[in-house]
Amino acid sequence: MGRIFAVSNQKGGVGKTTTTSALAAALQKRGKSVLCVDMDPQGNLSFSMGAENEGVNTTYEVLKGECTAKAAVQASAVCPIIPGNILLSGSELEFTGQGREFLLCNALRPLRESYDFILLDTPPALSILTVNAFTAADRLIIPMLSDIFSLQGITQLYETVTHVKTYCNPNLQFAGILLTRFMPRTTLANEVRGTAEMISSELEIPLFRTCIRNSVSVSEAQALQRNIMEYSPRNIAIKDYLALADELLRQEEPSIQPA
Questions:
Q1: pTM of the model
Q2: How deeply is 165 buried, as exposed, middle or buried, from its count of CB atoms within 10 A (0-12, 13-18, 19+)?
Q3: Chain centroid to CA 40: how far?
Q4: pLDDT tens-digit readout, 30-78
């Protein structure tokens, strides 16, 4: 059965969408089948992967029960994706019925046998969409920038996860905190890593050994709707995302050796 990973942080601009698409490409490079699900009303993941999100079945129709998740899957430049669009912005007011936290979980259940990994890109808010992602997920990846402001809010996210584990998904676990746009030669970045290690210890959230270094090529690939593994295969950030994929695979399958 495939594993579902939610990529989440209520702070915007920390690399959630980039991590989702680049990790999907890296896992495919390692021979795994991957499906992405765009839960963000902004639809940035859908755009960056070259998916259609207007006039087609999207995450919104899936959550409303107007189509199956399988019927909403489409091919993209990176991997199969269920796209998202602005219609998701009204979810907080529209999805008010009993069991609304389980809409995504129930919809994705038939697809778990078809993919090794399902990656959920969540909005920069702790909304019903995020709660749906947490309820559906097995693991949670928390991207954060290597600056002191990005450390704020981890506690709030932790409280939301604790609530979801209590009432919706007791099996949800943290995959880890992922430092993005990391500049290893700067004093600040290494101080932030030290602080992240303390938070990791206090809240019992793992900290990935892999850090994603800063690279403009990743943004270029997204703007051009290209698979980053093909656009700039020797890029430093791509090497980091491949290392992250290896780290995740070792978590899921401890017998796997580093590539």
A1: 0.92
A2: middle
A3: 11
A4: 999 999 999 999 999 999 999 999 999 999 999 999 999 999 999 998 9
